[in-house]
Amino acid sequence: MDNRNNLILLGFMGTGKSAVGRRVAALAGAPFLEMDAELERRAGKSISRIFAEDGEAAFRDMESRLAEEWGQKEGAVISCGGGVVLREENLRALGANGLLVCLTARPDVILERTSRSKKRPLLAGEDPEKKIRDLLELRAPLYAKIPVQIDTSDAAPEELAGRLLDLWKKQA
Ligand code: S3P
Predict the structure, then answer these.
(1) Shortest-distance atom of ligand 1 to CA 120
(2) Which protein residues are within 6 Å of ligand 1, measured from CB?
(3) Domains of the chain by range and CATH?
(4) Ligand 1 centroid – CA 122 distance (Å)
(5) pLDDT in tens, the chain (172 residues)
(6) Torsions phi, psi for 100 (to 5 deg)
(7) I need a labelling partner for 113 at 20 to 30 A (CA). Which of 11, 18, 61, 131 fits?
(8) Its pTM surpasses 0.90
(9) How far apart (Å, rounded) are the C-alpha atoms in residues 148 and 151?
(10) Orientation of helix 88-95 relative to helix 56-70, angle to 10°
């Protein structure tokens, strides 16, 4: 596909950004870029260790630097960490050359999906269900600002990828 715009996937943890993003990229023959994986590569350690050893503020600064950098890419599918919406400057940088799409899911679906991995420091420890509800409530206004919203709760990643590819093509 000849599309120089990026497709930027945002949304809460467990909404399918990576699963769906990887598939859209494959369908489009476009590069797939994942912020969390890149931040781990650059730091030489896991996100959990970055949070534990350097603190969340340091993680957010690294994330913003990467958003600024990847805002300059062309024709890529970029899967963002769930907290990228916390700083408006991130959305400005990524949106400059990209279609911003927010993936959503019901809290029970998020809990089910995120409980399969221990990689998320913000949901670690006691009562992840409450943590999800509290964080979702806090961030709801931020996610809601993104004009394109897609609920991934009940659809297969393949179907969602097809829908996203259509949307992205229309922006080309
Ligand atoms: C975070 C989401 C995570 C990761 C970090 C913080 C958040 O990414 O960046 O654990 O603040 O929502 P995923 O949304 O890919 O899990």
Answers:
(1) 10
(2) 13, 17, 36, 47, 81-83, 120-122
(3) 6-171 (3.40.50.300)
(4) 8
(5) 556 899 999 999 999 999 999 999 999 999 999 999 999 999 999 999 999 999 999 999 999 999 999 999 999 999 999 999 999 999 999 999 999 999 999 999 999 999 988 889 999 989 999 999 999 999 999 999 999 999 999 999 999 999 999 999 988 7
(6) -90, 125
(7) 61
(8) yes
(9) 10
(10) 20
